[in-house]
Amino acid sequence: MKTHKRKKNSRIRGARTVGWGFRQKHKGHGNKGGFGKAGTGKRGDHKKQLARDSDEKKQYFGKQGATSRRTERVRHENINLRDIKNNFFKKDGDKLDFSKHKILGMGEGFKAEIKALSASASAIKKMEKAGGKIVLPVKKENKK
């Protein structure tokens, strides 16, 4: 007499390992240390290079997250007079807009009007000596 035998796939349904024990044993990928970037921690030397050279912009190693208001980073760019003169200055009397930059004093001054967020004292002195000027935004006074 023939007995009814249940299909194997009905017994396997919902099982993660499908009779192979630990889920990593039947993958055929050797001992990689997990999925993706798993195992790249302090002692995971074999994957550090992969995490370091990835195209993602965010930092993988080290600390991330919020900082307190006192330690908040300055969010403006710095640029030297030398770089402005070599890359942006064309003729005397130019008006250059660097309103999101701080102008630093490395290099020589030149005859131009530069609009900037802030500037070092040496940069202002060099520009005035050469016949140019740096225009800074007017600070509002607090009225109490």
Topology:
Layout: H1 8-12, H2 45-52, E1 77-80, H3 81-87, E2 94-104, E3 112-119, H4 121-130, E4 133-135
Account of the 3D structure:
With 144 residues, the chain is α/β, with parallel strands linked by helices. It has a domain at 77-135: Ribosomal Protein L15, Chain: K, domain 2. Helices cover 21% and strands 18% of the residues. The chain has four helices and four strands. The chain has helices at residues 8-12, 45-52, 81-87, 121-130; strands spanning 77-80, 94-104, 112-119, 133-135. A four-stranded parallel β-sheet has the order 1-2-3-4. Strand 1 (77-80), helix 3 and strand 2 (94-104) form a beta-alpha-beta unit. The protein is rod-shaped. The mean pLDDT is 82.
Fraction in beta strands: 15-25%
What's the SSE pattern? HHEHEEHE
Shape: rod-shaped
Low-confidence spans:
none
Going by CATH, the architecture of one domain would be Ribosomal Protein L15, Chain: K, domain 2
Strand order of the largest sheet: 1-2-3-4
Helix proportion: 10-25%
> What is the CATH top level name of one domain?
Alpha Beta
Give a concise summary.
With 144 residues, the chain is an alpha/beta fold. It has four helices and four strands.
